[in-house]
Amino acid sequence: MKACQGLRRAGLRAFLVLTCAAAVAPFSTSAQEWPSRTVTVVVPLGAGTASDVAARVVMEQVGKQVGQTFVIENRPGAGGTTGANAVAKAAPDGTTILAYGAMAGSAALYAKLPYEPLSDFIPVTSLGQQPLAVVVSPGRGWKTLGDMVAEGKAKPGALNYGTAGIGSASHFGAERLRVSAGFEAQQIAFRGLEALAEIIAGRVDFSVQPFQNTLALIRDGKLAALAISAGKRIGALPDVPTTIEAGLPADSVYPFYTGIYVPAKTPPAIVGRLHDEIAKALEAPAVRERLTGLGVEPTPMSVEQFGKFYRDDVAANVALVKAAKIPIQ
After folding, report:
1. Is residue 20 located within the same domain as residue 159?
2. Counting runs of H as helices and runs of E as strands, what totals does the chain give?
């Protein structure tokens, strides 16, 4: 753990230099010419995941704006670190981009990574934040989140929750909820969305899942949503309270977002151009409509703002790993 923390401190110093440079450097000819060829957007998770879908929606529009092809390449493996490492080692010319929703979680969870999460990348912007839904089987008997928490406290360690694996949004989202509410529960990791099938079958008690994974099942009555892990209610499920409205502290909310990152030495002008094109794409009515339908709320940030947001999120995840006693991998 100490080695991990030392690595982050060293990385943070380098990260601050890179982020500031990206924010203040002047616009150059290289940015005007970018992109001169196909751009690969690496999603280090499987097709159909929240980061994959958001990246496809937004980058398709960016490609139209700049007149170039943006190819989404799924590179799952090692909890997302395989694909992230490929981008960290790629040529810093703006033609290899990372779209990742668990970057900060990985930075907190792994003692040794093949890349340094704070200094090997420049955080460009967020494609938006997506709420997480606390879902259970309708037959479980819980009518409110308070019912579930009460049982969790009454029977320490008896409840279990399904995730897409250690370090996933469903894992950290559930741990944030559990720690905030003050009860014990056991994680059961599954491949992809298998956890939802196990909840429906009654073999798993609950899960905290990206909204897009659960909406159709909630509407079909196969899952019941007890709460939304977000700062406010969502239009698609207006009757479902947030975890805060359900009585939990503000830190029960786990921010789940898809960040865009490029290799550290990418010229600041290209970083700025990429940021601006994504910001423009997020304003396109068709893009906003598709993202809203997925429960994603576009959250425009400058390069500097997103850099701070990412650093703060890494720190929050480090604190969560410690509080939840999640073993460092």
Report:
1. no
2. 12, 10
